[in-house]
Automatic annotation (TrEMBL):
<dbReference type="GO" id="GO:0030425">
    <property type="term" value="C:dendrite"/>
</dbReference>
<dbReference type="Pfam" id="PF07714">
    <property type="entry name" value="PK_Tyr_Ser-Thr"/>
</dbReference>
<dbReference type="InterPro" id="IPR013761">
    <property type="entry name" value="SAM/pointed_sf"/>
</dbReference>
<dbReference type="InterPro" id="IPR001660">
    <property type="entry name" value="SAM"/>
</dbReference>
<keyword id="KW-0460">Magnesium</keyword>
<keyword id="KW-1133">Transmembrane helix</keyword>
<dbReference type="InterPro" id="IPR050449">
    <property type="entry name" value="Ephrin_rcpt_TKs"/>
</dbReference>
<keyword id="KW-0829">Tyrosine-protein kinase</keyword>
<dbReference type="GO" id="GO:0005005">
    <property type="term" value="F:transmembrane-ephrin receptor activity"/>
</dbReference>
<dbReference type="InterPro" id="IPR020635">
    <property type="entry name" value="Tyr_kinase_cat_dom"/>
</dbReference>
<dbReference type="InterPro" id="IPR000719">
    <property type="entry name" value="Prot_kinase_dom"/>
</dbReference>
<feature type="domain" description="Protein kinase">
    <location>
        <begin position="51"/>
        <end position="312"/>
    </location>
</feature>
<dbReference type="InterPro" id="IPR011009">
    <property type="entry name" value="Kinase-like_dom_sf"/>
</dbReference>
<dbReference type="InterPro" id="IPR017441">
    <property type="entry name" value="Protein_kinase_ATP_BS"/>
</dbReference>
<keyword id="KW-0812">Transmembrane</keyword>
<keyword id="KW-0418">Kinase</keyword>
<keyword id="KW-0675">Receptor</keyword>
């Protein structure tokens, strides 16, 4: 710590936490010379005899994910998820695997996946977390397409925003916020997960190498994070807007089949995802706000939670649905709205479609009677 008189004192992370209990800051496990020390400090060792593995529920990067009861002496039996590290691992893999636990162990919030503990003194090495009955949010939504009320969907988004507010208050930047990294429990409570390698994103199939060598899930990532790796809570807000879009469209893939390069170019040219089908206008406005090019203009998680709370308290604010003239089927819209663009630039429908890499649909538009951008702007989803 550097004191105000310029002198510095050496301290330990433990000291920091004890001395300043009100200031909750996340401590990067990288600050530990020995990563095992971070695991020791932030996690609780569980004796493997308290855990029963019942069945496999998924495949993680390092091994199977199972579930079963955890029976700690003197505590109520608890259903848990058990991540295992497969045999034959290297020391580096063991470190990477336990990395997630030493991050998760620092968090304590109802919308962040809770770490129960780790098993490191016997093999296989395990990470024990609370069990989330409905699995990851993207698959859950796809399985239940159209089944929830708007208020239920807003409740899910509110939970995710609240978890993200906590993380940003802690000074933790997630970098890989996406519906696939949110888990859902039996009461529809959504919790942020996947703290694994959020700094390098090696374990996310969506992450692709950029020209600068970093691995980034392009469709979910803010332009400044793609362009010069400026990952901040404001770039997490951009990703949050994409998660809102995934929720309102029941797990649809953002930007559909467009290539990553086309997504980058379209976003750079101010095009954004259109409002999902039957999406309340107020929610679409919030998404669009999260996708402001200038990151300081994006709302903070704090503001997002407050706004979503307002919507929940006053559901009539969600009655008005996205104007279907703004919703040109699966085509992107310009951030300043489609109409503005049509009149200002004197473009043809062909030019416009070309500019968003949809030129191949020009003929279809002409055949359908959409020969001018004015008529396109008045198009309805039917
Ligand atoms: P992960 O390695 O964290 O991406 O986990 C792989 C898969 O296992 C996830 O996509 C989920 O389907 C499942 N899974 C992971 N953690 C949990 C959990 N706590 N509760 C239920 N399912 C989980």
């Amino acid at each position: 710590i550097i004191l105000h008189n310029g002198k510095s004192i050496k301290t330990t992370n433990q000291f920091l936490m004890l001395k300043f209990p009100g200031v909750r800051t996340y401590i990067d496990p990288l600050t530990y010379e020995d990563p095992n020390q971070a695991v020791h400090e932030f996690t609780q060792e569980i004796d493997v005899s308290f855990i029963s593995i019942e069945r496999i529920i998924g495949a993680g990067e390092f091994g199977e994910v199972c579930c079963g009861p955890l029976r700690l002496p003197g505590k109520r039996e608890l259903q848990v998820a058990i991540k295992t590290l497969k045999a034959g691992y290297t020391e580096q893999q063991r470190r990477d695997f336990l990395w997630e636990a030493s991050i998760m162990g620092q968090f304590n919030h109802p919308n962040i996946i809770r770490l129960e503990g780790v098993v490191t003194k016997s093999k296989p090495v395990m990470i024990i977390t609370e069990y989330m009955e409905n699995g990851s949010l993207d698959t859950f939504l796809k399985k239940n397409d159209g089944q929830f009320t708007v208020i239920q969907l807003v409740g899910m988004m509110r939970g995710i925003a609240s978890g993200m507010r906590y993380l940003s208050d802690m000074g933790y930047v997630h970098r890989d916020l996406a519906a696939r990294n949110i888990l859902v429990n039996g009461n529809l409570v959504c919790k942020v997960s996947d703290f694994g390698l959020s700094r390098v994103l090696e374990d996310d199939a969506e992450a692709t190498y950029t020209t600068r060598g970093g691995k980034i899930p392009i469709r979910w990532t803010a332009p400044e994070a793609i362009a010069f790796r400026k990952f901040t809570s404001a770039s997490d807000v951009w990703s949050y807007g994409i998660v809102m879009w995934e929720v309102m469209s029941y797990g649809e893939r953002p930007y559909w089949e467009m290539s990553n390069q086309d997504v980058i170019k379209a976003v750079e040219e101010s095009y954004r995802l259109p409002g999902p089908m039957d999406c309340p206008e107020a929610l679409y406005h919030l998404m669009m706000d999260c996708w402001q090019r200038e990151r300081t203009n994006r709302p903070k998680f704090d503001e997002i939670v407050c706004l979503l709370d307002k919507f929940i308290r006053n559901p009539s604010s969600l009655k008005k649905l996205v104007n279907s003239s703004h919703r040109v089927s699966n085509l992107l819209v310009e951030h300043a709205s489609v109409e503005g663009d049509c009149s200002s630039r004197n473009q043809t429908v062909g030019d416009w479609l070309d500019s968003i890499k949809m030129g191949r649909y020009t003929e279809l538009f002409m055949e359908g009677g959409y020969a001018s951008l004015e008529t396109v702007a008045q198009m309805t989803s039917e």
